[in-house]
Amino acid sequence: MNKIFEAKDINLAGINSSLLEVNIGPQHPSTHGVFRMNAVLDGEVIVSLKPVMGYLHRNHEQIAENMSYAASMPYTDRLDYFNSMSNNLGYALSVEKLAGLEVPERAEYIRVIMAELTRLINHIAVIGFLLNDLGAFFTPVLYAFREREKILDIFEEISGSRMMCNYLRFGGVKRDLSPAILERIRGVVTAFPRFLEEFETLLTKNEILCMRCQNVGVLSPELAVNASITGPLLRASGVNYDIRKVDGYSVYPRFQFKVPLGPKGDVYDRYYVRILEMRESLKILDQALSTIPAGEIMSKKMIPFLKSPRNFKPPVGEAYARVEAPKGELGFYVVSDGTPQPWRYHVRAPSFINLTILEDMCLGQKVADAIIILGSVDIVLGEVDR
Amino acid sequence: MMYFGEGVVKGMMVTLKAFVASYFKGPEDGGLFTVEYPEQRLPEKENFRNFPFLIYDNTPDNLRCVACDICAKECPPKCIYIVREFDKDNKPLKRPAVFNIDHTVCMNCGICEEACPFDAIYMDHNFEIASAERNENLLFRKDKLLKSNEYFHKIRPTDAMAIDERRAAAEAKKKAAEAAAAQKAAAAQAAPKPAALPAEPPKAE
Amino acid sequence: MNIMDTEKVKTDIEKALGSVALKSIRSSLLIENAQDLPKVAKFLKEDAAYRLDYLSSVTASDFIEYLETVYHLYSMEKKTGPVTLRVRVPRTDPKIPSLVSLYRGAEFQERDNFDLFGIVYEGHPDLRRIMMWEGFEGFPMRKDYLQEDSETLESADVEWLEKNGVKVPEAAKAKAAELRQQGKRALAERRVEDKG
To answer: Which residues of chain B have pLDDT under 70?
Structure first.
């Protein structure tokens, strides 16, 4: 093990102290998985912090390069296992761009509904776990999971699996939504604001939460842009950049919604931006559910390839498609050489790149704050380590 | 203007309400929603998918799988292993001699079910396969994978009905084509008598 | 989103920087000399017409004759993009100037590419392996990378197994000794997929 920081005696106001190297992780419960932080402490203040990852590395990219395009779809579920639908959407968009496929309108609406439901469950779970990191042991998480359960039940009913949905296909979706399911989704959407209000009463104005989170881990907008930070983390710093608005992929341009921004970019803003984003997601869901058209759910061109994925050969070329996943910009870069297997397949994982500035946010903070800063970045190790 | 501590007190009221509700209310109104598995179970969703199984019609000898190896090729983690059966003259038969699925490798994606052209493999609802021994007990061989069409009807009635109808229609069409071919052949044999007007082929209904 | 016209970007860069050799490939710009990359990126980042301040993705690929790095640049200020830059370097001496001083976002992505492809980004402040462990040999994402054969034992495996009281068959031991004598590692044959 290389020493990352040379421990040396320092003298502060006549008190002799020395720096202490501490390994936080790789199995610390608050590290959201097998993630390690190599911290150097002066007393309780962080002087240096290096994230160490790769414990869950399985070379997802090489696995995908050794199989047909469609066979990678279930593997993308396992990237960010909280949001399999968004991952599916990103991958489907990139291959559709590569092969020049059109998606029927109803399928586009279903995709948007699924992506927004995913955003809801991600954000409530993240807030719950952030409170876990703060020491509010499991009460907020269970409140969040109660609601998450209702959405996961819907996912199970339509896709067959609660978390590893594998629901989208190139050129459409796997199964149509029945009117009964649409009614159930509407039920969740109408009941959700009440839960959000309750959740906010529990947390938003809680003095302990405010004192622990405000002015902790401040991220300046300049650094955020320079370090390619995306998602709620970027918007909490006040940068207006939402790929749903900028790229306008799928049918997002048809819906009215705002992009919530944070004033300061501290942990509290990241918490509150997520709450506001959920409210915007509910608006999108409401509009999508009331305007969803009838029709096909699969592109005619792709129906034969459902039965024989290995015969699907996109033309030679490359495509980079990105979506606004709940954690940030999720990009898929696919290079085709005309064979059934991609020549190159790359995932631009938001939580991996968002970790770049973990050290900058933690410097000068206490150890306990480093844990909540990590919690507010919102990482999933399946995606970080790929 | 809030006085200090009001937020905490209001938050405590929420938890107090939930605590009281847990004694008096049902899961829909904010009460307890825990399902005490193994004694209680959640209702099974029809589309729920877990590990694959093989379907047979009527008797286990009459399985639909023809050992075409498509599912084994399409399976992303490559957990299916198939060997075709040969008769004593070394002629290949349309049935598998070996059909193994390694449940330790299977990732429940459902691609085998989608890719199968013979409606032979479907995803099961049984998820309780935990075992103390992984080499023998989690490698499911053919006899363990075979399940009847009735079982499929029980777990996934809508899909099973649709598939049965489709298969029956295809069967009828095939029979009609065969009958038509036989009649044509008979007519050709009966030639040169020109009297033979081809009989109406039976409708594929 | 405003899609940028590659030809226009190309002429603009050539006008401003003069000596840079560029070639457009599939709506992306190939920078012929890798050393020109920071110049081009700096121009695109700071020029008032472009302001491409956001480096979305840094990706490498192995095309057997050469290794390539692809940069996707967007503008958060103007909400435009992408401009795709690519740089090709020979397999034997893959060196590309690092963009970390311009874009912090490249830090982990360049480390990732260094780890999996072995491309050296010159000027990177902390170029270490990020996914694989220290002391790992080879670059797993290169097309000629051979995986370890999990079926064959090496002498270190035999030693470990015997120390832990596992009986190793003589044949496996002999094979391990043979491999050791030849100074080889137990590598798997590359799996040839039928591309049909």
So the answer is: 1-2, 191-205
